[in-house]
Amino acid sequence: MKLQSYLLHNYKNIPQINLLSPEQLEAIEVVGNVLPFKTNNYVVNELINWNNIENDPMFKLTFPQRGMLSEFNYNLMLKTLKSTSDKSEIKRVANLIRMELNPHPAGQMEHNVPEFNGEKIEGMQHKYRETVLFFPSQGQTCHAYCTFCFRWTQFVGMDELKFASKEATLLRDYVSANKEVTDILFTGGDPMIMKAKVFATYIEPLLDSDIPNLQTIRIGTKALGYFPYKFISDDDTDEMLHLFERIIKKGINLSLMAHFSHPVELETAAVQTAIKRLLDIGVQIRTQSPVLKHINDKANVWAEMWRKQVNLGCIPYYMFIPRDTGAQDYFAISLERAWKIYQKAFQRVSGVCRTVRGPSMSCTPGKVQILGVTEIQGEKVFALQMLQGRNPDWAVKPFFAEYNPQAIWLDDLKPAFGEHKFFFEDELDEMLLQEEYLQAG
Ligand SMILES: *Cc1c(COP(=O)(O)O)cnc(C)c1O
Ligand code: SF4
In terms of domains, do 174 and 41 share one? Predict the structure, then answer.
């Protein structure tokens, strides 16, 4: 039988739904009207353990849960659904609640959009010198939706302006003109939702024009986690793999930045076959995930995940802190706990698994890594460093914040030792002002 990604936008079409309690069904209905929901038959049949729904990480990762909304907002939506079937009224209430969930964290939409020949290139983001992010317009959805996702607003139709572009030639021209760029990172959504033919329209101009500075094409994707059949038996699997081969034969590294949140996602025959096929043609697979309460907030889960990844030939790459958006309260753990999970997991694996960097927050100044909690001259502090900075010179410079056991994001931290600002703040303010000025002009 050939497996397809039957998209299940409506949970009522899933036979296993009968296994859920009335409370669970209500929660899916209520929360699902605020946060996006989408799954497919692979996630439902091969990843979720329907006999242990109360504790199943894959269920919580993809199905809306009651705790994802505050008590107040939950009851507000419940009351609305009970009192009306008017779609526009439900949507109005949903949008009110969404506005409270920090729909656009860390300047995702407005910052770092590059210009070329005096024109802003929407669908591109150039924040760190070597790497350009590209958001192909047909890649802005996913095989299934993660309930923690910081891109959730684009799935619920709130964004007028998705980061999206059909401008394959603009991408090529921009990378050709900016010699410091070595990497293009295709992202979304999930670019691997695209058909091979569509993806080829972005890749071919890059291959045809021999850009000497272009060393690596990366694809940020959850397809190995949520739909590995993409690389085994989809309509155009062979065409996609052939396109990958052409990139590699051209001498460009091709790296799948594969998002795996739990070891279960590495256990099916399908994912293992898909990984093998990709490695066989020379694709590199690097792995990343946020650390999430209810899903993977245990050192053993991470140690097991890294070991499994390495055994399958993948390279552990990043552990992230979930962004301050959407159902963050449900998923967030303190920065201190995130560091402890990283530390303990790291201590339990051999050096070949220790390629992973983290825990790291993608914030306005850069990717900030928590090095740990320590004490300096009697003051308990967080030691931090940037792995990437808006100014490349900011990277790998240790800095310190007052210890705060509740902190879950950089905004919750204050500089240590009575200082008023972190070392990068003045320069960052300057950069943001400059950007605003350019935008206004
Ligand atoms: C993470 C990220 C990158 C890639 O960073 P690497 O450390 O090279 O993996 C590029 N651009 C943005 C905006 C990012 O957040
Ligand atoms: S696969 Fe990635 S972009 Fe898609 S919903 Fe999950 S976290 Fe978000």
Answer: no
Q: Is residue 88 part of a domain?
A: yes
Cα 26 to Cα 65: distance, rounded to the nearest angstrom: 9
pLDDT per residue of the chain (441 residues) written in tens, 0 to 9: 333 444 555 666 788 888 889 999 999 999 999 998 889 999 999 999 999 999 999 999 999 999 999 999 999 999 999 999 999 999 999 999 999 888 877 655 568 888 888 888 878 899 999 999 998 888 888 999 998 887 777 776 665 444 444 578 889 999 999 999 999 999 988 999 999 999 999 999 999 999 999 999 999 999 999 999 999 999 999 999 999 999 999 999 999 999 999 999 999 999 999 999 999 999 999 999 999 999 999 999 999 999 999 999 999 999 999 988 888 889 999 999 999 999 999 999 999 999 999 999 999 999 999 999 999 999 999 999 999 999 999 999 999 999 999 999 999 999 999 999 999 999 999 999 988 777 665
CA of 217 from ligand 1 middle (Å) equals 13
Do residues 285 and 278 touch, judged by C-beta distance below 8 A?
Answer: yes
Angle at 246 between CA 244 and CA 250, to 5 degrees: 120
Helices and strands of the chain, counted as H and E runs: 15, 15
Say if residue 152 is in the same domain as residue 55: no
Q: What would the two tokens of residue 13 be?
A: 């079409």
Global pTM value: 0.93
Which range of residues forms the domain containing residue 70? 6-99
Say how many Å lie between the CA of residue 388 and the centre of ligand 1: 7
Task: Kindly state whether residues 205 and 56 are assigned to the same domain.
Answer: no
H or E segment at 286? strand 284-290
Total structural domains in the chain? 2
Residue 1 lies in a domain: no
Please tell me the number of the ligand nearest to residue 190's CA: 2
Q: Is residue 400 lining ligand 1, measured as CB closer than 6 Å?
A: no
The closest residue, in CA terms, to atom 10 on ligand 1 is: 131
70, 99, 128 — which closes off a domain? Answer: 99
Whether residues 250 and 116 fall in one domain: yes
**Can you state the angle between helices 237-249 and 269-280, rounded to 10 degrees?**
30
Nearest to 17 by CA among 32, 1, 36: 32
Residue 174 falls inside a structural domain: yes
Ligand 2 contact via 259 beta carbon (within 6 Å): yes
Mutate to test the pocket of ligand 1, among 185, 217, 317 (most ligand atoms within 8 A of CB): 185
Take atom 4 of ligand 1 and give the residue whose Cα is closest: 131
Atom 5, ligand 2: which residue's CA is nearest?
145
Q: Which amino acid is at 406?
A: Q
Q: Which of 133, 182, 253 to mutate to test the pocket of ligand 1 (most atoms within 8 A of CB)?
A: 133
